[in-house]
Amino acid sequence: MFATNKDLSKMIKEGSFREDLFYRISVVPITIPPLRERGEDILLLARHYVEEFNKKFMKKVGGFSREAEQILMAYSWPGNVRELKNILERVMILQNMGTTIMPENLPAEMRASVEKERFQIHVDDFLPDLSSEGMDYTALTENITRTIKSRILSRALEMSHGKKMEAAKLLRISRYKLIREQKKNGMV
């Protein structure tokens, strides 16, 4: 059995891998996509590792909260299955007996990475197609600003389950300013 994460066809063309060796080892090639492309496998593997580490560390951790599962699913897993296993081993070592894995039990850098991806805004999503007539720069930038502000306000309200005071605290503004911004951006 032979495994690699390299593009052997490309390496043969570059002369850095022997073609005859390639044909010897590629009897039944199997390609496994990276973990981030196999979303359905993430929770399956995570639950398997929790079971495995429950036995290894003699614990009875009951699995993941819904929020922790969402973080696991949203994370990009640059280290693939090894990273998943190592993170869960670390979490399980630190986890108390009989508890559920919560978002705060997952590594801070992992949670931060997911939050960063969640809040990324792609400017291209807001740009209209440029016609030969051009566009009004001022109107365009005002529209983009209003759209982004509306999304930020909506996200804060969603995270606070519609409670304006909590949403205002998340955004570090007063409740009055939140309501004023909602009106200003056509949300009320």
UniProtKB/TrEMBL annotation:
One MF annotation (Gene Ontology) recorded for this entry: ATP binding
One Pfam assignment: AAA_lid_14
Alphabetical UniProt keywords: ATP-binding, Nucleotide-binding, Transcription, Transcription regulation
Domain Sigma-54 factor interaction as annotated: residue spans: 1-93
Annotated SUPFAM superfamilies: Homeodomain-like, P-loop containing nucleoside triphosphate hydrolases
One BP annotation, GO: regulation of DNA-templated transcription
Transcription regulation as UniProt keyword: yes
PANTHER family reported for this sequence: TRANSCRIPTIONAL REGULATORY PROTEIN
Designated name of the protein: Sigma-54-dependent transcriptional activator
Organism of provenance: Syntrophus aciditrophicus (strain SB)
